[in-house]
Amino acid sequence: MAKKPLLPFPVPEELRSMTLGEILAYFENRYGHDVGRGRKPALVIVDFSVPFTKGMLGFPSDGYEPAVAKTVELLAAARRARLPVFFTTLAYEPHMRDAGHWAAKVPWISALQCGSAASEIDERLAPEAGETVINKKYPSAFFDTDLEARLNKDDVDTVVLAGCTSSACVRATAIDSMQRGFKTVIGADAVGDLIPAVHWIHLTDLASRYVDVAAVSELIDYFETCRKVAA
User: Fold this and answer.
1) Which end of the chain is more exposed for a tag (fewer CB within 10 A), N or C?
2) pLDDT at position 57, please?
């Protein structure tokens, strides 16, 4: 059975011929403001679970090796600074009713079953005692979870994001974080997507209109500053 077109009308040919550079230039010429960072950040690592970082039967994945390596560095810095750390994973009951209509749009998420290896965080980022793993059902780490309550309990004012994917769960979490009043920063080299061009378009759009984006090296320095201030 042939798949139906994603859109009801074809993309205009003049848009199909646009280069990635031309698209990014639009954002770079129009935007450029920062929100800044607060005194109490938390690190939220989105969906760097085994299926995403290593792949599994029936579940397409890129592996995200460079982003995982940078997230390992960022996580170590957060732990040195004794900052709150949260992980998210996608996992569903066998009946898949907890996935709602998302399962119809992306049927391969049915491979992500609760209690299986598919729900486990990559061992390179293995959560330590006191670090919370949030089982989410939808793209945003905030939707129908207690993440916001946990952040507020820890007096967090800034959310630093790593994980995957830039265009889906990282994006949804970043915008929800901003909408809930948290200063939000994405670790540019600690996130990834299945298609590099899609990654850069969404990262640039997020940096333009919603949240800040910074290199992991800069965020490590930020965490260290927070550690010294709290000491």
Assistant:
1) N
2) 76
